[in-house]
Amino acid sequence: MTQASALPVAISCGEPAGIGPEIAARSWHALRHEVPVLYLGDPDHLPEDVPVVCIDQLEDVPEVGKTALPVLSHRFDGPLTHGRPNPDHAQSVVEMITTAVTLLKNGAVSALCTAPIHKKALQDGAGFTFPGHTEFLADLSDTAHVVMMLVSEQLRVVPATIHMPLSEVPQALSPEVLEQTIRITHDGLIRDFGILVPRIAVAGLNPHAGEGGKMGCEEIEVIAPVLDKLRGEGMDLRGPLSADTMFHAAARATYDAAICMYHDQALIPIKTLDFDRGVNVTLGLPFVRTSPDHGTALDIAGKGIANASSMIEAVRLAARLGRIRA
């Protein structure tokens, strides 16, 4: 598939009172000769200096997108005030996500890049019951299990457990959860990144990977048996490894992705290596979904100072993964 004939990447607007519309517009401007994009949302929420064309025919997106941001227009109820989410907008924010999934299912777009949502605003204004984008997209696509991967040029990393207190991690880290995480990561590296024989490094939970049981037994009782089982199926797995020696340059060169046991163990290294350009990729969905690795940034919304680097990389990666799946 050539760039000229490539299907567009859909960008859902996210929380309009945040920086989503601004960074979406800037990603279009940065990539307009590289990636066709289609913005889903209210055109009035976009920065005033951005040329916009509301379109009816999706085949017009590549040509229109060279000089203006193509928008699949949906007018939101109620006024927009930067930095202050309007509950009247919540239902429309949800509808933009569902519209994007419909376009994906119909083959009208190649991938989805989601601008950040404000979960409390959606709960208050639309009765949104999902913890976030990822769980909602899994529900819309009837997907039982998904995995969050953070991607940069230097590192791909997956947390086996995500948003929970550290005290709850050992109980949540079951053999089933870890095996599922490794399988989805392995399949995602093959399907989405074109790595035919993925090399996966797996961290231990405890310091020094438990040091033979002296500092915890999760490595012996939970992690190692899962790795042994999957190695028996032919997977190239290293670990359990001491997390403090996994992320220097020489170590990173030995694997294609690292699986960590909890949120900060995974996110600290990637944000240290490339704070501004990390991308969130959801593995396990029947379509490509990426997002910038940050939130709505309500405190700087509308000021024109938001760093769009992560969004630009998220759109670029969405297009690349969409081409691989095509």
TrEMBL record:
Positions contributing to a divalent metal cation binding: H163, H208, H263
Cofactor(s) for this UniProt protein: Zn(2+); Mg(2+); Co(2+)
GO CC annotations, alphabetized: cytoplasm
GO molecular function ontology, one term from the record: NAD binding
Subcellular localization(s) per the UniProt record: Cytoplasm
Binding site for substrate: H133, T134, K271, N280, R289
InterPro entries from the UniProt entry: PdxA, PdxA_fam
Pfam families: PdxA
Disulfide bond listed as a keyword: no
Reaction catalysis annotation: 4-(phosphooxy)-L-threonine + NAD(+) = 3-amino-2-oxopropyl phosphate + CO2 + NADH
Single biological process term from Gene Ontology: pyridoxine biosynthetic process
EC number: 1.1.1.262
Highest taxon of source: Bacteria
Function, as annotated: Catalyzes the NAD(P)-dependent oxidation of 4-(phosphooxy)-L-threonine (HTP) into 2-amino-3-oxo-4-(phosphooxy)butyric acid which spontaneously decarboxylates to form 3-amino-2-oxopropyl phosphate (AHAP).
Quaternary state and interactors: Homodimer.
NCBIfam families hit by this protein: pdxA (TIGR00557), PRK05312.1 (NF003699)
Family stated for the protein in its record: Belongs to the PdxA family.
Protein name: 4-hydroxythreonine-4-phosphate dehydrogenase
